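yo, Tigger transposable element-derived protein 1-like 135 is done. seq:
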Amino acid sequence: MATWKEVTVRCLCAAWRPLWPECVLQRDFEGFEELEEEAVVHEIVSLGNSMGLEVDDDDVEELVEEHNKELSTEELLDLHKEEELNF
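structure:
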């Protein structure tokens, strides 16, 4: 049963689309179909593990949380200075 948890939504859709296209959700032209957050986290963890990385759900959620925080004025100024140095 544990091995089925490692199969991604992308993998299942790719396998079933040629065999039974009517049963596979199609992506609309404006973006991807909406996936539940848990499924997206699982997809990211599966991709990381397939690349040999030791990643779990908590790691992904922590990273997302970190990127949701607003930057302070000082952090924005530091980024701006760094960007100027790179050009």
